[in-house]
Amino acid sequence: MNLESRHRFTFSTHGEHFLLDGEPMQIRSGELHPARIPHEYWQHRIRMTRAMGMNCVALYVMWNYHETHKGVFDFESADRDIAAFIRLCQSEGMWVLLRPGPYVCAEWDLGGLPSYLLSEPDIRLRTDSATDPRYMAAVARYIGALAPRVLPLMIEHGGPILMIQIENEFGSYASNPAYLEELRQRWLAAGIDGPFYTEDGLPQLERNRTTVAGGAIALSNGDAARIAAARHAFPTVPVMAGEVYPGWLTHWGEAGFAGKDYDLSGVLAELMRRQLSFNLYVIHGGTSFGFYAGANVDDAGNYQPDITSYDYCAPINEQGAATPKYRKYREIIAGYLPEPLPDVPEAIATLECAGSGALLPTRYASIWDNLPAALPREPGGKPHSFEHYGQAFGFALYRKALPAHAVGALDISGVHDYATVFVDDRYVGAVSRMRMPLARAQPLNVMHRAPLALPSTTPNHEAKPDEEFSLDILVEGMGRVNFGPEIVDRKGLFEPVRLKNADGSLAWLTDWEVFLLPMDETFIANLQEGCANPLKPGLFFKASLVLDTVGDTWLDMSHWTKGVVWVNGHNLGRYWHIGPQQRLYCPAPWLTQGVNEVLVFDLHQVESKPVRLADSLS
């Protein structure tokens, strides 16, 4: 099939089949996320997908990855050039299912919605313009920026895009036909008339009827039986298994990587035997570099942030290598196809020194010596969220002067999501929104929604009546919730912030100074060397990695506590000693022959520890 010529993709009259040029077509799709893969590796991952027997690539477009500031879009730079990725799929003989949201879930911060939406205190997300015109105005701006790039890539114009998904798993969020139809109309107004489809779990689809006019249906956790059930309930449109899970997501603090024991052999064989269409979510997960990993909230209301790796125990692992699952599934699929599959691409090279080399970073800078100017104090001096101040990711320092005779317990149970607390220069403990394993929390005095005891502020002398001390609360915003009704998830320090005095009385704390610490490229590039107080946690450590040749590697952070790593200015993501992830993936394109700079920011450690190079995630 020549994908460079024009084709026609439609549905059969009674929905039995997807049709390519009038003939039944089985969509065999593997999900890839360009935002989680360095662009230098896009072609390799697409070829790996094709060699497993797929004829299609499904991909999310993460809105907040492309509109990083309100009204400022980037669809052109290297890792954000969606059109280039789609054209690459076409050049490799692959069709495309486009999943542009606006909401995508994807274990991605806020499900792909831009955090600036949360600067509006009463915003309503994922709803129609009659309910909240502010949200839909932003959506219209996003579709308006994306659609011109998509239009020439639709199948009717000679491109590889078969269908565009409207929203994502909306039945798990609400029932609002007007919203889904308004999204469809936005695409129509942009000159794209489909075909469209929706994605939902079968129970949610049956309960909320979350389809669009003339659109196909894709099923989360789909298989042959669920496809049959959906076809019975919706007999006029075709149905595919839109998310078939070969692995699963992993949260910080869990015992191990989820999804290792999944075996899709039976599900795949039945889909192939019956020529049913499907999409493996994900065939290759990649990495949630930077601060983009999302989070969940469980049924008990517990916050569950996702790890940095999106390996997902998928058939193609985080580095792009074929796993035993890959080889097993490839053999099953090949058995139902008339033509042999292409050879599996060669594996990506790994650093030869991985597994033996170790770095020992040296103390480089302190966050306390790199504070920007404090924001102007607002009336009442209440603490506000990152979003209120226009910050998307990173950290913020909330500072409050207290009388030196103050003593008691600090209640900051509303912190989102992790805070280290200091009385003057003394670390007194941390507060975590997430429940941490007890053994991991005790050495650091980490509390979960419980008051944090403050020590006496005048241990060595009698306080003067007007003497004050500084209370510093350094807050890390971790992943925003990406699924379910709790997605309005702002970051920072929230009221009530109270000091419980020794006599039992409560004092509400106001009049805060706020220092924004986004830890973005600009902030890191302008970091000033020096540590006035090397014993106050919140330090940067630096090491040089000298290479004769480059290759993929992992940085083993198992000797460190909690923080972020940059290599040559690229943010590899978060590490946390509670695991299960202890190693951060560093792709070869981010390294160079010669000297490479490794920068570590740790919230707790004041002494450097080794960083070993490794050759795998675990």
What would you say this structure looks like, in words?
- The structure is a single chain.
- With 618 residues, this protein is α/β, with parallel strands linked by helices.
- It folds into three domains: 9-334, TIM Barrel; 358-366 and 527-614, Galactose-binding domain-like (Jelly Rolls, Sandwich); 371-517, Sandwich (Jelly Rolls), CATH 2.60.120.260.
- The chain is 16% helix and 26% strand.
- It is built from eleven helices and 32 strands.
- The strands form seven sheets. An eight-stranded parallel β-barrel has the order 4-5-6-7-8-9-10-11, surrounded by four helices.
- Strand 4 (28-31), helix 1 and strand 5 form a beta-alpha-beta unit.
- It is globular and about 85 Å long.
- Keywords: Glycosidase, Hydrolase.
Q: State the domain count.
A: 3
- Roughly how many Å is the radius of gyration? 26 Å
Low-confidence parts lasting 5 or more residues at pLDDT below 50? none
Q: Which CATH top level class of the largest domain fits?
A: Alpha Beta
CATH homologous superfamily assignment of the largest domain = Glycosidases
- Percent helix range: 10-25%
Oligomeric nature of the chains? single chain
Average pLDDT figure: 94
Describe the main β-sheet briefly: 8 strands, parallel, barrel
Spatial strand order of the main sheet: 4-5-6-7-8-9-10-11
Overall SS class:
alpha/beta
State the CATH architecture of the largest domain.
Answer: Alpha-Beta Barrel
Beta percentage is 25-35%
Q: Helical element count?
A: 11
Q: In total, how many beta strands?
A: 32
